[in-house]
Amino acid sequence: MKKHTHGGNVYQYRNCIDFSANCNPLGTPERVKQAVIESLERVSNYPQVGCRPLREAIAEYEGVNPENIICGNGAAELIFSICHGLRPKRALVPAPTFAEYEQALGGIGCVTEHFYLKEEKDFRITEEFLQALHEELDVVFLCNPNNPTGMLIEKELLLQILERCRALNIMLIVDECFLDFVKKPEQYTLKNVLTEYPNLFLLKAFTKRYAMAGIRLGYGICKNRSFLEQMEFVTQPWNVSALAQAAGLAALKERDYVEAGRQMVFVERDYLISEMEKLGLKVYHSQANYIFFRGPEDLFEKCVEQGVLIRDCSNYPGLEKGFYRIAVKKHEENNSLIRGLKKIQDKDMAVQKPEKKMQDNQR
After folding, report:
1. Residue 121: which residues within 8 A CB-CB, separation 6 or more?
2. Does residue 173 have a pLDDT over 70?
3. Fewer CB in a 10 Å sphere around the end CB: N or C, the chain?
């Protein structure tokens, strides 16, 4: 299987504003940066195995027991640990969705079935998903809100999926990494039913909430202690660096920062959707901190020329050339994106007018 190409390639596109990676628009909190600097005094020591202080802080933040928390080198590592610990033979994932699910499954030889989301239904997961669940499946991955579409799965449907998975002895992995940027996350999270469902694992990360992508820190919540032990058994002991653990402890104190980032996303997301629709782009009304849309097939290259890096989504299963995703950023940066899109549209129209005149003259 060809390895998936992600956004955030600021190393190749150095002179572009990066709209291809979806992190908190406020940037990394200063106190998190300072915590990393101070942790350098301990860089000669191995990091603490098991991340006990960090797990206790996460548990307090989430309102769960520390024993139900597992930390990883980003949420991506936990996805691989889930697959190596569970060793599933057959899995179900939506298409399109986050690529690491299928990559991790493929790495252990698991057969992956796709549930293709339909464009005419705005790429939403509907009750039809329930019919795709069957007894030969070992694990199901869902992302809520989904990446790259930004569409939410309603809580009632999620609970129906979870119940059917339990009846069929299927492990359900729900990725809630982007739920922090939903207006009412408490209406969608499955955290309050973890005790009832030992087949449920929730995936979360510091990456998006605190703009800490380069630090690599994620965590999972599950009440099935034996499953967490299976994951721990296949994960190397020093997987979370001392720097990342220090950054995580500092980040969890940044509650005002998180709320400020959320409020900025709500305002700027509406602004971007409105302006993009005025330009005639097909915009799907995402409920996350990114926007999924359809445009010209060469829009990625033209945006780079304007100093803007967007996410080309054509390499997602279930999508084709012309689908894109952009992050919601600060207003000045968002204005730069809109100005760039307008310039592209003006150039295209200027090219089309002489062509149309020539065609009219030939009639």
Report:
1. none
2. yes
3. C
Residue 66 carries which DSSP code? G
Q: What is the pTM of this model?
A: 0.93
Q: Is the bond preceding residue 296 a cis peptide, omega within 30 degrees?
A: no
Strand partners, 290: 327
Rg (CA), the chain: 22
Residues above pLDDT 70, as percent of the chain: 95
Q: Is the peptide bond before 25 cis (omega within 30 degrees of 0)?
A: no
The burial class, CB within 10 Å (0-12 / 13-18 / 19+), for 11 is exposed
16: which 2 tokens? 């572009």
Residues 73 and 94: beta-carbon distance below 8 Å: no
Do you know the residue count of the chain?
363
Tokens encoding 232:
């721990």
Cα(221)–Cα(146) distance, rounded to whole angstroms?
19
Q: Is the pLDDT of residue 11 over 90?
A: no
Q: 150 is written with which tokens?
A: 């930004």
pLDDT at 26 over 80: yes
Check residue 18 and give left, alpha or beta (phi > 0: left; psi -120 to 50: alpha).
Answer: beta
Q: Which helix (DSSP H) or strand (DSSP E) does residue 293 occupy?
A: strand 290-294
What are the angstrom distances between the C-alpha of 149 and each of 16, 57, 123, 270, 328? 23, 31, 7, 16, 13
Query: What backbone torsions phi and psi does residue 304 show, to the nearest 5 degrees?
Result: -60, -40
pLDDT of residue 349: 81
Crossing angle for the helix pair 74-86 and 225-233, to the nearest 10 degrees: 100
**What DSSP character marks residue 21?**
S
Other beta carbons less than 10 A from residue 6's beta carbon: 14
Which tens digits make up the pLDDT trace of 181-190? 999 999 999 9
Cα separations (Å) of 3 from 117, 176, 300?
A: 22, 23, 20
* CB-count burial class (<10 Å; 0-12, 13-18, 19+) for 165: buried
Would you say 292 and 147 are in contact if contact means Cβ atoms under 8 Å apart?
Answer: no
User: Any residues with CB less than 8 A from the CB of 24 and at least 6 apart, and which?
Assistant: 208, 209, 210, 211, 257, 258, 261, 289
